[in-house]
Amino acid sequence: MNIQFFIVGVCFLIVGVILMWKYKFFKYKAIDTLFYTELKVFLGALILAGMGLAIIINELKKVIN
Prior knowledge:
By secondary structure, the chain is an all-alpha fold.
């Protein structure tokens, strides 16, 4: 297990969740321009959190095997 990758994964997951919590796109109507900007940031945060989760799972699988 590479502890540096694990720490980076945890950081990605935490930052992604915080950004998803902050930028809630669904409180705006679809015709509002803030809807699209908030959606763009939310999707980027979702990808960041997913990447962090994938890194954490990969590093934990190395410990188990």
